[in-house]
Write a structure and sequence with these properties.
Number of domains: 1
Shape: globular
GO biological process, one term: phospholipid catabolic process
Number of helices: 13
Strand order of the largest sheet: 7-4-8-1-9-10-2-11
CATH topology: Alkaline Phosphatase, subunit A
CATH class: Alpha Beta
Distance between the termini: 29 Å
Protein name: Acid phosphatase
Helix content: 10-25%
Keywords: Hydrolase, Membrane, Signal, Transmembrane, Transmembrane helix
Radius of gyration: 21 Å
GO molecular function, one term: hydrolase activity, acting on ester bonds
């Protein structure tokens, strides 16, 4: 990922093109229908009402903000996004980051990178999970860094059936087209909380993997955590629909939240962005807008051209609360510049990256890692566990991680060639039903591992031997 845009050869670009938009589905000719009267109200179109399950946490003061909310939409080129009525209406209220990039294609590896600082060689949207001894942003928030006080967090997923749900997808009542067949509104691949065993494999933390009825209730109860990740459903985020559709959703969803002080006070930062662009042959630039009452009024309706990526959201959080680092993409001096209007406040010096030197991040399916089927490895430690991150703290290394096993030291196996799949494509079978609330008859549970994924069988060759030999280190 060091090559400049100008230096990428036609052959490499051809690789990205041949990989294609793996996850794209036909854009449906649908008309936006609000799921409820307001995003502040719970909806019967979802599955199960909230039962006030999120505990109240102490607020830990940050250097620049006390709450950060990320809202991710889907698969849209920068130019298309910025031209929508919703984004045009929001621009005067925030700072436009016009040089912000996704880190790869397709969707799932970007969501995964947003909390682990790596996409682990993933180049598709299969069922995947990350072992508990791999440090994620959630570990850093729980650790508290220099202050030692945990930072509260949650993921809010529209149309997810219940807290802690780990299924591959969920099909529920079609509220967009009444009388039509049930629709798969929720998908796991857009949910970073579901992908890590640290959350999904722990009954207490599974509570922090929540849905939109929880969001409405948590706002009303004034229990919205200090870090949150919000994913609209597959039509509202634009994945299965159009720019006009997600624009209408944004007009419905954001104004009410921006005007609600329990969600947006003068210490709140809201990052509205996209997972990736829609053009695999173009640089992976995405529309990103910093909003919230915490944004200095003097900077609203301005544009900043500092080069940033999804890793910047991690480094900014680390710098704000003096957290430890992951030692991965979050410490990449090129790709993890912190949000520039707070760089001085955060005590961090960003790296100037000229447009011609911006790394190519639109390639997919060519990187090695534990989630790659063609260049498969064990999970690996950071290259340098002594590096200091944006929070001025060291790397957080978890128990059970072999720090001598870095990507460069591990063998790579073409599992596809021997008819196997990465072992981490297999559903580990966590059962978090009724962690706080259960599903009801309004939905049809389609929770399952991707049909193409299957577990390794011991004794089936080099790959199986390598993976099972590593289980003692990585589980």
């Amino acid at each position: 990922m060091k090559a400049s845009l100008a230096a990428v050869s036609a052959a490499v670009v051809a690789t990205a093109v041949s990989a294609g938009p793996i996850e794209k589905r036909a854009r449906l000719g649908l008309t936006f229908v609000p799921p409820s009267s307001s995003p502040l109200a719970q909806s019967s179109n979802y599955v199960g009402f909230n039962n006030a399950s999120y505990p109240k946490h102490d607020t830990v003061s940050g250097k620049a903000f006390d709450r950060i909310v990320q809202i991710w939409l889907e698969n849209t080129d920068y130019e298309s996004a910025i031209s929508t009525p919703a984004m045009q209406a929001l621009l005067p209220q925030g700072v436009l980051f016009d040089n912000y990039y996704a880190v790869t294609h397709p969707s799932e590896p970007n969501y995964l990178a947003s909390i682990s600082g790596d996409f682990w060689g993933l180049g598709d949207d299969t069922f995947n999970h990350i072992p508990s001894n791999i440090t994620t942003l959630f570990d850093l928030l729980d650790d508290g860094g220099a202050g030692g006080k945990p930072i509260s967090y949650a993921c809010y997923q529209e149309n997810m059936p219940y807290d802690g749900f780990t299924g591959f997808n969920y099909t529920s009542k079609n509220y967009i087209t009444p009388g039509a067949s049930n629709y798969t509104y929720y998908v796991r691949k857009h949910n970073p909380c579901a992908m890590t065993d640290y959350i999904s494999g722990n009954k207490t933390r599974a509570l922090y993997n929540r849905n939109f009825n929880d969001l409405a209730a948590d706002i009303g109860n004034n229990t919205v955590p200090q870090w949150s990740f919000i994913t609209p459903n597959m039509v509202d985020d634009g994945h299965d629909t159009t720019s006009a559709f997600f624009s209408n959703f944004t007009n419905y969803f954001l104004p009410s939240l921006l005007n609600e002080t329990k969600f947006n006070d003068n210490r709140t930062l809201i990052l509205l962005t996209f997972d990736e662009n829609d053009s695999y042959t173009a640089a992976n630039r995405i529309f990103t807008l910093a909003l919230g009452a915490g944004v200095p009024s003097s900077l609203k309706n301005t544009t900043d051209h500092t080069y940033m990526t999804h890793y910047s959201a991690i480094s900014t959080v680390q710098a704000n609360w003096n957290l430890k680092s992951l030692g991965r993409g979050d410490v990449n001096k090129t790709m993890a510049n912190v949000f520039p209007f707070w760089a001085d406040t955060l005590g961090y010096t960003n790296t100037q990256v000229d447009d011609a030197d911006i790394p190519m991040t639109n390639l997919t399916g060519i990187y090695p890692g534990p989630l790659s089927p063609t260049a498969n490895t064990l999970f690996y430690a950071p290259d340098d566990v002594t590096v200091t991150g944006a929070g001025g703290q060291p790397v957080l290394v978890k128990s059970g991680l072999n720090t001598s096993q870095t990507l460069a030291t591990l063998p790579r196996t073409n599992l596809t060639a021997i008819g196997q799949k990465p072992v981490w494509n297999t559903d580990p079978g966590y059962n978090n039903v009724n962690v706080s609330q259960g599903a009801n008859s309004a939905g049809t549970n389609a929770a399952k591992t991707n049909a193409a994924a299957r577990p390794f069988v011991a004794g089936t060759g080099i790959a199986a031997a390598a993976v099972f030999a590593g289980f003692a280190l990585f589980l």
